[in-house]
Design a protein that fits this description.
Arc Repressor Mutant, subunit A; HTH_MetabolicPath_Reg; 10 helices; DNA-binding; about 20% strand; single chain; DNA binding; transcription regulation
Length: about 270
């Protein structure tokens, strides 16, 4: 019985490792590429991919032989997203804010030492050619990340910076002391900013989202090109709207609005 359990667990792990090979950069893969990425033998990969194809978790192109993720994977992702209380509480609020501001609005959930985008809505002044939902991003190089880091105990922030984070541009904060200054500023005014720290020509304003217990579990940001979102100029009005939207989501999650009143005083 124990051997059957081990064998079943191994099969599941192998199947998941194959599905995890598909990324935005590698949306279509051959059996040989899956073998190289997972270290599994060709017969094993072929057999498991055929099973996943029958279950519609992957689809094979009859002409090229390439595999891509199938409709069953899409369905599971949609179910997971719709099952998120943060997504359900934020979707309409974020969409309305994007319409008012005319720039992109994103909501992301904290996940360990990174975060995952749950939804994004385009503004007329800052359209995107891709969807953000499901993507991950680093905490130290984004406004959303700073908003999330601002709620972490100091020991966890120390742990994050123990291995020097990646520098994406000359503006990326990779020094722990420099980040503490940025986090103190974020806590005092209720929002974080980012100017070309992850990518050139981009900026954003982000505010934390709290759960019933007051813990920062997610964040909301307004972002766009520098030509539209100039954070060197006065931006208090945009910041206020971002904070208000994030607070509205927090309240929907059970957080008491009275706890966030001090955030507006800094503006």
């Amino acid at each position: 019985m124990a051997s059957e359990s081990v064998g079943g667990t191994q099969t599941v792990e192998r199947a998941m490792s194959l599905l995890a090979c598909f990324t935005e950069e590698s949306g279509e893969l051959r059996v040989s590429e899956l073998c190289a990425l997972t270290g599994l033998g060709q017969s094993t990969v072929s057999r498991m991919m055929s099973a996943l194809d029958r279950m519609r978790f992957v689809v094979q192109d009859d002409r090229t032989g390439l595999y891509r993720l199938g409709p069953a994977a899409v369905s599971l992702g949609t179910i997971a997203l719709n099952g998120s209380p943060i997504f359900r509480a934020s979707r309409q609020i974020a969409q309305n804010l994007a319409h008012r501001l005319g720039i992109g609005v994103n909501v992301a959930e904290l996940s360990g030492f990174t975060f995952t985008y749950l939804c994004n809505f385009e503004g007329a002044l800052a359209p995107k050619s891709f969807a953000m939902a499901g993507r991950t991003a680093p905490l130290h190089a984004t406004g959303l990340g700073k908003a999330l880091l601002s709620g972490m105990p100091s020991a966890l922030v120390d742990e994050y910076f123990a291995n020097t984070p990646q520098r994406y541009t000359p503006h990326t904060i990779v020094d722990r002391d420099a980040m503490e200054i940025a986090l103190d500023e974020t806590r005092s005014r209720g929002y974080a900013t980012e100017i070309e720290e992850l990518a050139f020509g981009r900026a954003c304003i982000a505010a934390p989202i709290r759960n019933r217990a007051g813990e920062i579990v997610a964040g909301l940001s307004a972002s766009g090109p520098l030509s539209v979102l100039d954070l060197q100029a006065p931006h208090q009005e945009i910041a206020l709207q971002v904070i208000e939207a994030a607070d509205e989501i927090s309240v929907a999650l059970g957080y008491s609005a009275s706890h966030s009143a001090t955030a507006f005083a800094a503006l």
